[in-house]
Amino acid sequence: MSRLCRHVFDDRDPDNPQYSMTEWDLAIRCGGKNQALTVRKNHGTGGYEIWDYRNDEVVVKGSLEKVVEVVNDLEGRRNVEHGCSEYCLPSEQEA
């Protein structure tokens, strides 16, 4: 089971600061033909997105919990959960 922690999305992309530096790719079999889906944080809204980076299109918007639920639906199994892991390093903003 993979665990997707909100802290991995804290750092902003220096080339596009509205979005997180980290993106979490979905399994290659997800999405339609010619889609490449990834999870990212939109720092402008504070929400999370499933983004098709091949077509530059947001497929789903919402909380991390909602996005993880959709990821599991797309992947056809419950193999991703949200929450901190033992390796989580919260940002200094929360320390």
Count of alpha/pi helices: 1
Element string (H = helix, E = strand): EEEEEEEHE
Overall residue-averaged pLDDT value = 86
**Distance between the terminal alpha carbons, to the nearest Å?**
27 Å
Strand order across the largest sheet: 4-5-6-7
Number of strands: 8
Helix content: 10-25%
Largest sheet data = 4 strands, antiparallel
Classify the beta-strand content into a percent band: 25-35%
Structural class of the helix and strand makeup?
Answer: mainly beta
Computed Rg: 13 Å
How many structural domains does the protein architecture include?
1
Taken from the alpha-carbon principal axes, the silhouette is globular
Q: Oligomerization state of this entry?
A: single chain
Poorly predicted spans = none
Summarize the model shown:
By secondary structure, the protein is mostly beta strands.
Description:
By secondary structure, the protein is mostly beta strands. It has one domain (2-81). Helices cover 13% and strands 35% of the residues. The protein is built from 1 helix and 8 strands, in the order βββββββαβ. The chain has one helix at residues 64-75, and strands at 2-4, 12-13, 16-20, 24-25, 37-42, 47-52, 57-62, 80-82. The strands form 3 sheets. Strands 4-5-6-7 form a 4-stranded antiparallel β-sheet, covered by helices on one side. A two-stranded parallel sheet has the order 1-8. A hairpin with a 4-residue loop joins β6 and β7 (57-62). The longest helix has 12 residues, at 64-75. It is globular. The mean pLDDT is 86.
